Amino acid sequence: MGAVTVERPAPAAAPRPSARGEGAARRPRGGVRPLAGALFLVAATAAGGVALAPSYAEPGALRAVLGAAAAVSVAVTLLLSARTGAVPALLGGFPVALGGVVGVALWRPPITGFSVEQVASALVHSGARILTSAAPTPVNVDTLTLPLLATWLAGAAAALMWHGRRTAVALLPAVLLLVGAVVLNGPVAPPAYPAAGLLAAAAAGLFAVSGTKVRDARGGGAVRVSLSAPGGGTAATRGSTLARVLGAAGLALLAVLLTTVAGPLTVSGWQARPHDPRSALEPPTPPAPALNPLSYLPEWAAEPDQPLLTVRADEPTRLRWVALGDFTGTTWLPESGYRSAGTALPAPVPPPPNATEAAVEIAVGEELPGDWLPVPGAPRAIDAPGIGFDAVSGTVAALDGPAAGRSYAVTGEVGHWRAAEMADARVPSDTALDRYRQLPAGAPALVTEIAAEIAASGPPHARAEAIAGYLRETYTFDPEVPGGHGYANLANLLVPPGEDGGGGTSEQFASAFAVLARAAGLPSRVVVGFGPGDATGENEFRVYSGDAVAWGEVYLSGFGWVPFDVTPGGEEPGGSTAPEPQSAEASDPAEPESTPDPPEDDEPATSAAGDAAGPRWGVLAAAVAGVVLGLAGLALVGVPALRRLRTHRRLAAPDPGDRVLGAWRELRDGVRLAGAPVPVSSTAAETVALAVDLLPPTAGSGHRLRELAHAVNIVGFAATGWLTADAAARIVADTRGYLAELRAGQRRLRRLTWWLDPRPLFWRAP
Amino acid sequence: MTTAPDIAPGDRTGAPPLTAEEVAAHAADFERIAAAVRRTVLGKADVVRLALTALLSDGHILLEDVPGVGKTTLARAIAACAGADWRRIQFTPDLLPSDVTGVTVFNQAEHTFEFHPGPVFAAIVIADEINRASPKTQAALLEVMEERYVTVDGVRHPVPAPFLVVATQNPVEMDGTYRLPEAQLDRFLVRLSLGYLDSAAELAVLRGDRLASPEDLDAVTDTAGIARLAAAARRVHIHDAIFEYVLRLAQATRDHAELRVGLSTRATLALTGAARTAALAEGRPFVVPEDVKRLAVPVWAHRLVLTSEAAVGGRDAATLLSEILDATPAPQPVRTGA
Known about the structure:
Chain A contains 24 helices and 19 strands. Chain A is α+β, with helices and mostly antiparallel strands and 766 residues long. Chain A has four domains: 28-215 and 235-264, no CATH class; 300-414, no CATH class; 419-530 and 551-611, C8orf32 fold, CATH 3.10.620.30; 621-762, no CATH class.
């Protein structure tokens, strides 16, 4: 028998001390509090969806789907876990989640149509498909599956933690989900302050509810016996409930204000642009048709009357078709990295200057080859299904078949470049643009000579304009010239400045311009497009093969890709071409510069240029390694801190009885940590016997634990019985001593990781 | 060393709470009786305590064991220590009910019928080899055990209080015996088995060291003292969690696939009563889960009826009960009061 001394309670102070506590403790689960708790769980889980929604083309649809996923997940898991264990509850809900994925697939099938294989493929590849979609992400089963399943998992995990009375841990999945959503958003969506506010409010509510949460009857055996003690306390309970509700509401309001007001204020002066995770992944290359749009130009120039497009527009609109950025020496290659896109397309960076919006409806005729869809300017919205978009070149392509026969409405921003504005524009020195400066070996000597002679000095725009002017004035348009735009063709075409050159089509002139611009150090590329065509009715135009045209573009800081009209004579190319090149040149001659303007790094990398840098696996690996290391470091510091904090809270509770119970829980955790789980049927004395057996017989602290068992029984089962502070202090000291000896007797690895083991944080207190 | 915790405000019965002094005094009384009995029954401290627990819980004892291990000695020692009168009935096949209860005879002198009490009218009745008597005679004794009245020729005669029947049964020789029906085994609070002594104790018995015969024992208490202890035991507190634990265990026996008959309400009542006495005997004014676990087999095992498959399969009630105890979560201390 232990030496526990107790002091006599004041009889008047507690006439029926257990009546109210037991009444509250034994009320069966049900009523409004669990419901409120579940609602807060749903709100916390849905915060991730709220954060993610702005990066999708249809935020409302995404919020609805993820909100429903959170609600159903929490409800199903709570219902299941009330009847079965944690693992069956988690697994039992997954068929419902998969059913949700199938439902989404029926609602928004992938571009290739609904099939079981497509659903399975969405399950496996959803993450990659989100990252390879153009932002804002289109809403379909491919891009919804990952957020839906992640939300489901977070909701289910939160519900299980909540069921296990771990409020703080229950919020962890929601926090992780929110962080994941924000990382996935990158620069696409605005900062997720509303979502953080929602999460903060839900957390406050959850803590408020769990503070008064009904404790489940202990045990959990076959019989649930309700032995409600008589006695009131309901009025007092109601009063304190009201106070708690008010306090919780205040706390929630404070949390929301802190996150939605203080948060933005804190970071308002911080000019950082979030990293876009999409840039780490190269979009899959669709089986590229072995087509080169440039090579159609001579054929079309020879037969200019084939109808290609029917365009409905308020005014004649020039259309872009394909941009070609890579030159091999024999040919220009089109971009091939198309991200699947929805109806909304990302804004061009930088925006085209003096832009006007052009809304056109285009019906593509049967004669147009390839998958590329002609669009006006920089496209912002298109109502065609299953399209891909390359933000680098601004090219739109159909991902599910040839462009021929399609009809679509498209809205684009058409820029108007003015020479006067661009006079001082510089060329960014960003390495991302290097690929547009590269000339493969084997260039005709004439190319560098011409570039050196006509474009050796001056501001970039003036140099580009000089090249364009040289081409326009020196040569003639000749549709009879055979196709080809490689170095060999250029060597035949080019003549030194001052002489009269031969003829060519826009294919050769655009290629010549781009090559000369590169020789002069300017980033350049070739674009193929169509002129406005012939008006065939009110607001209706027919575009023929003879309207096809190629032109060159040069990249200037702040203005993006600036088009230059380079084809001489008859054709009417480039509605958006820089007008009055002479006036632009005339404004500048007073500013002679002896050397070519060295490109200056006066602009941060734009995302259009940044995307061109290709996969950044190194960066990704470093980021992953950093996150892993950070988490490991956090665990190394956080787990022992949390464990110590909990030990302290248990052993330093103000009430001696709570201290004894705290020591009891520490003992059980310690015994379990030492590899001897306490059977559920164990009583206090049996547990202590088990604990003593873990120590070698010579250890001294074991026998003193008997007093702990006795005290635990007093606290737990005596009608009343107040332990003295002295007795509690002695018991706590004995328990500490025992645990120290227990740890010292462990094997080295277990001893070293004793405080690092996070499992006790998740063990349910008896 | 022990300063017993005091007990505060009363329990459901409204009886005044046990004070620390009371608990300590009662525990000392119990220990004094137990020590006296242990002088004649060597090496069987736990059985002695269980037997005394049954006595103080108003229950009867069934001692089931082979002959010659001290069954009768234990019963006589308890009777002697309690200062109570005791009788012994040797049950045989030809024993008649009236041989147990007594008979009414006609008094020729006074021309009246007068009742001659049988051996059952004693504080402690030792019913030796109860399974040798006919069921009718067994029933006569079992009726008295439950009713505490003897009804002869329509007249009820009360037996004295306390009233403890210590029945012995020999499980080895079964020929020509009438096994006690299960329904009537329920009347016994505990079934105990003394078992063989360990070598040291048996050596001491052989030498005659320290061994007192029951006749040598002085009474250390009296029937009033026994009644006081029993009354105090009824005031021991049982926490609701313990009640739930007992009910969970009982429910488990009722749902068990290998048990034909589970525990009755009388069985759960018996256990909580015995647990109160056991707690008081240990100087505790409240019952702890250990009490329940320790008493479950002696109080409950004989009340369980196995299915025939389980019985043929060599299972026994005590083993099944132990398994149920191991599988049922024990109540854990939760801070509810204060």
